[in-house]
Amino acid sequence: MMNNLDDVVTTRYEGSIAWVTLNRPEYRNAQNSAMTYALDDAFVAAVDDDAIRVIVLNGAGDHFSAGHDIGTPGRDVDQSFSRRAVLCWDHVGKQGADARMARESEVYLGMCRRWREIPKPVIAMVQGGCIAGGLMLAWIADFIIASEDAFFADPVVQMGIPGVEYFAHPWATNPRAAKELLFTGDRFDAHRAQSLGMVNHVVPRDELEQRTRAIATKIARMPAFGLSLAKRAVNQAEDSQGLRVGLDAAFGLHHVGHAHNAELHGDALAGADVRSLARDAAAGGQLGEG
Ligand code: ZN
């Protein structure tokens, strides 16, 4: 099964493995809503196909994902999509915090929660940049295999916003590391991510796909129902350690940050745009958005 190469997400089935690929390499796989819903369609199809046992989420090109789309020609924040992650009204036609919360509770927090609960193992295969919203996509996976050139960052505190919408930082790393990565906005490399428990394996770039395939193939031999139960058991352990309520609490603070920006600057992102972020990137900062 293969989609059109123009699709923002492509899917390739290889035996029992579904390779689901973010496919906007010209924009470092910046995530617009079209990509979000295409990704959801791809996950649903892979869940529904009994032949598929493992899903590998990956990104085309040099980078896994630069984060949410805040300025490509395909930016679509003002468009309506058929909502499916949470039961809420359409953000289009609403204003202020109402519009922002309606949209972000659906396409960011809601979708990430939905994807975390996919009943089949999901492996994120990460190369190059995995920034801000890109972290959210990697974090919904059950585990992460990164190449040696991979780097990670959540720089959105620069915008006065306390991290990306899916606030898994303290659970994906640890509380002190989460504070450091948020307070500095610095990138951290794959080995640091591994030392923090966020990444399972760091492999040479030219072996990334092969090593990921080997692990996925091994997992695919396990009973599907047993895998889904094991996944649920670990997810429930994380939830009992506060992940679920932590996400809700941080989501509220995230929207205080957006609202403060809108009140003071007339813009929920505090004037951050592609140009300013590109400047930051050139100065050693990162691309990405909250
Ligand atoms: Zn936001």
What integer is the average pLDDT?
93
**What's the CATH C level?**
Alpha Beta
Helix/strand/pairing category:
alpha/beta
CATH homologous superfamily title: 2-enoyl-CoA Hydratase, Chain A, domain 1
List keywords for this structure.
43% helix; binds zinc ion; globular; alpha/beta; 3-stranded mixed β-sheet; 6-stranded mixed β-sheet; disordered C terminus; 2-enoyl-CoA Hydratase, Chain A, domain 1; 290 residues
Structural commentary:
The chain has a single domain (9-287), classed as Alpha-Beta Complex (2-enoyl-CoA Hydratase, Chain A, domain 1). The chain contains ten helices and nine strands. The protein has helices spanning 33-48, 96-116, 133-139, 169-172, 175-184, 190-195, 208-220, 224-240, 243-265, 274-282, and strands at residues 9-14, 17-22, 54-59, 122-126, 129-131, 143-147, 151-153, 188-189, 201-203. Strands 1-2-3-4-6-9 form a six-stranded mixed β-sheet, sandwiched between helices. The chain has a three-stranded mixed β-sheet with strand order 5-7-8. The longest helix has 23 residues, at 243-265. The radius of gyration is 18 Å and the shape is globular. Bound molecules: zinc ion. The site of zinc ion (ZN) has 5 residues, from helix 9.
Give a topology summary.
Blueprint: E1 9-14, E2 17-22, H1 33-48, E3 54-59, H2 96-116, E4 122-126, E5 129-131, H3 133-139, E6 143-147, E7 151-153, H4 169-172, H5 175-184, E8 188-189, H6 190-195, E9 201-203, H7 208-220, H8 224-240, H9 243-265, H10 274-282
The protein binds zinc ion.
